[in-house]
Amino acid sequence: xxxxxxxxxxxxxxxxxxxxxxxxxxxxxxxxxxxxxxxxxxxxxxxxxxxxxxxxxxxxxxxxxxxxxxxxxxxxxxxxxxxxxxxxxxxxxxxxxxxxxxxxxxxxxxxxxxxxxxxxxxxxxxxxxxxxxxxxxxxxxxxxxxxxxxxxxxxxxxxxxxxxxxxxxxxxxxxxxxxxxxxxxxxxxxxxxxxxxxxxxxxxxxxxxxxxxxxxxxxxxxxxxxxxxxxxxxxxxxxxxxxxxxxxxxxxxxxxxxxxxxxxxxxxxxxxxxxxxxxxxxxxxxxxxxxxxxxxxxxxxxxxxxxxxx
Length: 310
Fold this sequence. Notes:
The chain is 40% helix and 16% strand. It has one domain (2-309). It has helices at 11-18, 46-55, 69-79, 87-92, 98-106, 129-132, 141-164, 177-187, 194-202, 220-240, 243-246, 263-269; strands at residues 2-3, 36-37, 43-44, 62-66, 115-119, 122-123, 137-140, 169-173, 217-218, 247-250, 255-258, 275-277, 288-292, 297-298, 308-309. It has 310 residues and is α/β, with parallel strands linked by helices. Strands 5, 6, 7 and 9 form a 4-stranded mixed beta sheet that branches. It has a 4-stranded antiparallel beta sheet with strand order 10-11-13-12. It is built from 12 helices and 15 strands. Helix 2 runs parallel beside helix 7 (141-164) and helix 7 (141-164) packs parallel to helix 10 (220-240).
């Protein structure tokens, strides 16, 4: 793992070095790759994405992995960062990353708690406190909305980044990975055979975790409706390259102007307070929502505030 900060010279060289290859004379014909992770605890300053543009080599293919915001929220807030080792695959593998095996083996399965979304001191309309249970996490609706907006922002900025850089990229839904794996492997330059790719898919080092039930977050309809609005807005941004029109900062980044169709209606239906706004762009339909930013903004200075590559 390494951090991308103001001292990073080349992202390609970082990836090659992390994979044990010589950045000057890399071993051929292997393909090297890495994950670029945007931690969901706050917003990255837009200047960080400009900095990334300076580091990207045009030969690097970018795969934007997209997942439902409801599924992301539920897994992140209720289960946290967690993986389970596929012991059978490890035992059969010719070689494994022993550090990864040791780390994953040391993790214990988290005890899941349900979440009850609240407005003020009361459960949000439509919530079933009995379904959540007496030990449920009480979570303010403003924080729930902000959590999804941080995830949405990360996706939009990543999409804007590759579109503006005219970077070779693909947007792949999390649930479609297996079906598109062969074409993705070819896209990034892998020469693995179909049999080798099928073997890799069938023998992952870590297991794919079970999808958590939507009812663990009460009311599930609110989370799903909000997620659907953002999912649709992102799909439109992919198709029409309008990511910059969807999200605009205002008031010295104290407010977010969102051109997301249906968002105002969802917030109104659940009596969640918000303001209306009129962003300068009129490229998208729908009433605009002005949302007061709750999470911090991380600048480029300081390694812990930078994107993480692993």
